[in-house]
Write a structure and sequence with these properties.
Serine Threonine Protein Phosphatase 5, Tetratricopeptide repeat, alpha+beta, 7-stranded antiparallel β-sheet, about 500 residues, Protein Transport Mog1p, Chain A
């Protein structure tokens, strides 16, 4: 036996399996080293939860704390249903119990149900919790609950980041209840099984059993995360063939189809997911986005409204509906939805530029600037935010701030240099730096925007009209118009 290859960790001690010993059942979580990480087990009475930590970089700090990677930690725990004071929906009671605890110890607490991370399972719940102190500092975690007979086993992973979602999905897929006592014999059996396994190295698109629908679905998620839309569609299609009632496979195939531009196909898949699960809020929200892309704004708003009714804490649904209301001209309604979406998830940088555009439509340029500055704070590498900031600062009559924002946009987003330079030239013009402005206007006069539909000069002239409509003028604007519209003499 390779006694050093597979070690059983009991509490903080490392022990090799011992044959014939009559040991007491383990009280702390135990861990079995595998060739690709750790298998964990945590007992309560006559059942235990098992889970898998993938990756040889994972480090056990103590029986209850694991460093999954350099910047991600996990805690293992169990909550007795007597503490939860609920005999019915243990998972929801557990999540609320945790939220109530933080409400007593923090300035603000926000939470979201992350149904997108659990697939079709009903015995697991993932709640995203964000906790703030009085200075605005944030602590975030995924609370993964597994329902048991007498309570809830829990894995808490921190912090919350988009690139950690796949890791959480892997934990969820391995987090299962075993209706057996975790005694010494069971612990030895787990160790023996780990010895017998030859685990392959992790892969973003692992090999799957030809009849395993859930595995195809999971591999489809990995491909979608890597923008392999054709691969994601193929894997989710295979999952559906194997299990026609696998709701999440329709939803994720719809996401891949929408990303490819197949809007009708996406809507059909979202509709099938909704048919299978009429309470599937994310499917309503995403179907709404697909309908908007086809020009059906009323249908899009109706779908988002339904998503909000099913999940009143869905920031995405509020933000989507706000966008669609703005497109219909209901700017006040749009701002109200953005306000609620931002209240639910203040760390989503995408919501602030959307609300900024709505404020700009109402000529509330101070508010537009404030929102866009917040977006740059949350996502400082997004050149598009600085492009927008430069534009709003021009209408806010702050040309030097517009110049600074435009220069930053050029640094971050060189592919959009022609468009960004319109803002930069306007900033120099309104700041009375005529020579700098003139140089940029003339150097880019005939350049085409990336979409190929308009030239730099056409954009500048359109901008001048917008400035005039807003009461913003400069004595040198007519000189620039003349320079841009004068055709060179024929040789």
């Amino acid at each position: 036996m390779k006694r050093l290859a597979q070690l059983l960790l009991l509490g903080a001690l490392i022990l090799p399996p011992v044959k014939g010993a009559r040991a007491e059942p383990p009280k702390d979580p135990i861990y079995v080293k595998t060739s690709n990480g750790w298998n964990g087990a945590f007992a309560h009475d006559n059942e235990y939860a098992e889970f898998r930590v993938i990756g040889n970089s994972a480090k056990l700090q103590d029986p209850y704390h694991i460093l999954l990677r350099k910047d991600v930690g996990m805690m293992v725990s169990f909550a007795d249903k007597k503490e939860l004071q609920s005999d019915r929906d243990l998972l929801s009671a557990h999540a609320q119990w945790e939220i109530d605890y933080w409400n007593q110890h923090a300035s603000r607490v926000e939470s979201d149900n992350r149904a997108d991370l659990i697939g079709t399972r009903k015995d697991v719940k993932v709640t995203e919790i964000r906790v703030y102190n009085d200075k605005g500092a944030q602590l975030s975690s995924y609370l993964i609950g597994l329902a048991a007979k007498d309570g809830v086993f829990a894995l808490s992973v921190s912090p919350v980041k988009k690139d950690i979602d796949p890791l959480v999905k892997e934990l969820v897929s391995s987090f299962k209840l075993v209706p057996r006592k975790l005694d010494a014999e069971e612990a030895k059996r787990l160790s023996s099984e780990a010895n017998a396994q030859q685990s392959p190295a992790p892969s973003s698109a692992p090999e799957v059993h030809p009849k395993d629908a859930e595995a195809y679905y999971n591999r489809g998620i990995a491909k979608l995360d890597k923008d392999d839309f054709d691969g994601a569609i193929a894997d989710n299609t295979r999952a559906i063939e194997l299990d026609p009632k696998l709701t999440d496979a329709y939803y994720n195939r719809g996401n891949a189809k929408r990303a490819k531009g197949d809007l009708d196909g996406a809507i059909a898949d979202y509709s099938r997911a909704i048919q299978l699960n009429p309470k599937y809020a994310p499917a309503y929200n995403n179907r709404g986005n697909a309908k908007q892309a086809k020009g059906d704004l009323d249908g899009a708003i109706a779908d988002c409204t339904r998503a909000i009714k099913l999940d009143p804490k869905s920031a995405n649904a509020y933000n989507s509906r706000g966008s669609f209301k703005g497109m219909k001209g209901d700017v006040a309604g749009a701002i109200a939805d953005y306000n609620r979406g931002i209240q639910l998830n203040p760390k989503d940088s995408r919501a602030y530029p959307d609300r900024a555009r709505a404020h700009a439509k109402k000529k509330e340029y101070d508010a537009a600037v404030t929102d866009t500055l917040k977006a740059t704070e949350l996502d400082p590498k997004n050149g598009g935010y600085y492009l927008n900031l430069g534009w709003y600062q021009l209408f806010n009559r702050k040309p030097r701030e517009a110049i600074a924002a435009s220069l930053k946009a050029l640094e971050l987003w060189p592919d959009k240099a022609v468009l960004i330079k319109t803002n930069l030239a306007h900033g120099y013009l309104f700041d009375n730096q005529f020579d700098k402005a003139k140089t940029i206007y003339l150097e880019n006069k005939d350049a085409k925007l990336p979409d190929g539909k308009r030239t730099f000069s056409q954009v500048v002239l359109d901008d001048f009209k917008e400035f005039a409509d807003a009461g913003i003028t400069h004595p040198d604007m007519e000189k620039i118009k003349a320079l841009l519209t004068t055709k060179p003499d024929a040789p």
